[in-house]
Every structure is written in structure tokens, then in C-alpha cells.
Predict the structure of Protein DETOXIFICATION.
Amino acid sequence: METTPLLNGAPSTTSTLTLLENGDYAPLRSFKEAKSVFWIETVKTWKIAGPIAFQIICQYGTNSFTNIFVGHIGNVELSAVTISLTVIGTFSFGFMLGMGSALETLCGQAFGAGQVHLLGVYMQRSWIILLATCFILLPFYIFATPILKLLGQEDEIADLAGQFTILTIPQLFSLAITFPTIKFLQAQSKVNVLAWIGFLALLLHIGILWLFINVFGWGTTGAAIAFDITSWEITLAQFAYVVFWCKDGWHGFSWLAFKEIWAFVRLSIASAVMLCLEVWYMMSMILLVGNLNNAVIAVGSLSICLNLNGWEAMLFIGINAAMSVRVSNELGLGHPRAAKYSVYVTVLQSLFIGLFCMVVLVITRDHFAVIFTSSEEMQRAVAHLAYLLGVTMVLNSVQPVISGVAVGGGWQTLVAYINLGCYYVFGLPLGYLLGYKADLGVMGLWGGMIAGAALQTLLLLIVLYRTNWNKEVEQTTERMRLWGGQDISTDRINNSI
């Protein structure tokens, strides 16, 4: 038996579609139906991706404005704070974000299955795990100075960076609450509030930086305190919103948070490894480039390219999170075909965005470096790398979407193995051989590592193509039953999200 109801909140074009009794799509039978699905899934994805991308850009701005204000104090101060935020901060941020990403799988699937009350339990479970993770990461903050000296930093910079890092320990612990809370809200598509909190926090951060550095003259100490205050402002604002305005998902603190915690830890670690293998891959390239001849130009030109690539990455991180929410929600609802179609539509759109960015970049390759440097030699070096940057942008347009699918479906362990093999067994050694042995320099290093990323993307696309979405729904049901602290029926909610 089939019916043709309208999807909740979707355009009127859904009337051309045939839907199954549970609200999932029936197989597409015409180009007109495919076009309708494309439009529906576009609207659903970007309603989530837009606010998330804006929030991430605001978060990116918090670090940027901290560097800008510190840069007016002195070069040593700027170098020290940049090193602290880039090396120690990025390492801990990436690991904590990865540990918290397990919540995207579970909260999204629980919300889709109609088990909204479990979201609060899962969030508390993640708080416990991430707070424990903070204590594990604490030695990196306490011993930041000797670690940075071991990595070859000058004593003056390492000493100041170590002092700044110790002062930002409160910010580390704020992440243990912030990340799970963000995933809790994202799973319910309550993303507009995250965007507003991020925007207001950025404005307040700029004001606090000006007060502490320009008025009080507290220097890097003031910058660290401002960084801590802003982080906890975001944390407390999100927590307050959850407690007072999310009554369906939040029912107070529960002892169920300690149930099946080790299974939760395993998924969290898999998420962290999956993400960190990607983050460390790019960091390792920067370290290798630093050992080339004429390292100043090599590192400088690569840094400009990666900086520009970073802004595009903010958009696709938003799409990554949206994809995770869409896939996990649809699997929780028992809609395998809707999950599949949402993935295909988003991959196609992201590919077009990446190709557009590559074309613009290639056309402006001799000019865009002027934004970052006045050195003609550096501009020529950047223009020389523009084609590799363009290819990287295309790969980075598809890869985050598939990673979002992996998180939404709970495939983190599989993707971690793929990342390990493609990046560190194939890409990194190939880059080393091309860069050093073949004497191709930064072009060889980056080219080899792009090959690793391309292989990873290809394998993920094959995994995606071979995915049995009906089986994914069954695994979602089993996961909810085991980790929810109660039995959950395989019957699904017949309402569309």
C-alpha cells in the first residue's frame, strides 16, 4: 500500500512523489521525481548546514581576533600565542571534537527513532567521557614549554607559549561540556541558537580583548583570560538553553549516563582517531616542508594556500555536520532510501561547489596571494601551487560529506582504518619520496599527499556505493536497544522530520 502525503515543511513539489506508509521515499520513477527529491533534500540539508557553518566561522574568528590583538603587542607574543593555539590548541581541540563526534551518531539516530528522551542521557555520558579526556590531555598543557622546545621552537617563544597554554586550561575543560551540547542540539536541528550564541560570543570576545589588552595592558595574560571567558560564556549559554528550552530531550541528570559507558568510549575513541588522522596528516606536511631548502618561501607559500583552503573548509565542516544529522535522523526514522538520497544529493552539490572554487582559484592564481603578502617571490611561489590547491579544494568538497555520513551511520572504525592506510601507509611516504628523493620540493610533498587523499576519497565512495541502507536501519535499532538502557521496538515513527 502506498500513499502520497506531503513531507512536513517541504515544498509543494513533494506532491509529485510517491511515499511509503512510513514516510520514506518510494523508488524514483522519473526525472521529475528525481528533481523534486533534489530540491527537498537541498532545503533540508542547508537549513542545518548554513547556521552550523556560520557558527564554526565565528569560532574560527575567536582564534583569529586573539592573534590580531596579540600581534599588536609584539612579534614574539604573536609567535608564542600562534604556536600555542596551533600546536597544543589544535591537537586538543581535534581530539576532543573527535571524542564528542560519537554523539552525532547516537543522538541523531535516537531523535530520528522518536527516543528523544535518550538524547539527554547520551549527552551526559559524553560529558563524563570528555571530562576524563581533559585530564588525559592536561600534561600537554602543563608541560607545553618543554614539548615545544623538543619540537625545535626557540626558548623565548616556547617559554611564553607555555605560560599562555597553562592559562588556557579552563578553556580545555569548557570543551568537555560544549561539544556534547552542540551535538545534542544539532541532532534536533536546533542550529539557529548555536549560530546566535557563536556570533554574540565573538562580539563579546573582541570587546574583552580590547579591554584586557588595550585598556588594562595585561598582554598575553589578558588574551588567555579573554579566551577562557569567551569559551565558558558559550558553554554556559548552551547549557542554559538545553536545561530551560529543551524539555523533550533533557529530563535532568540520570544514572543511565553510566550504563554501557565502555561501548560508548569505544565509539568515541574511533571517532577521535578518525578525525585526528585527518588533522595530523596536514600538520605532518607542514613539518616536512619546514625541512626543505628555502624553507621560508616553502612554508610561507604553503601556509597561504592552506589558510585560503581553511575558509572553504569552514563551509564543508558545516555540511559535514548537517550530513551527519540528516543520515542519523533518517536511519533512526527507518528511512533507508531517504538517507541514501540525501547523501547522493549533498555529494553532488558539494562536488559542484568544489569545482567552482577550483576554477575561480586557477583564474586568479597570479593575484590572490596579494591579500596575504607583498613579496613578489612569495606570490610567484603561491601561484605555482595554485593548481594543487585547486585539486585539494575539490577533494575537500567531497570528503567531509562522506565523513559526515560515516559519523551519522556509525562507521567511524572503518573510516579510521581507511584513513590510516591511505594517509600514512600510502600518501605520506609517497609525498616524502617525491619531495625529497625526487627533489620536487613542496610540489612533490603536496602531490603525494593529495594522492593519498584521492585514494581515501575513492575508497569512501566505493563504501558509500556498496552500503546496504536497510541493514544500516537494523543496526541503528540494535544500537538504540543496547545503549538506550531499554528495549526499543523496531516500529518507527511515521512522521517525517
The radius of gyration is 23 Å. Residues 1-15, 485-497 have pLDDT under 50 and may be disordered.
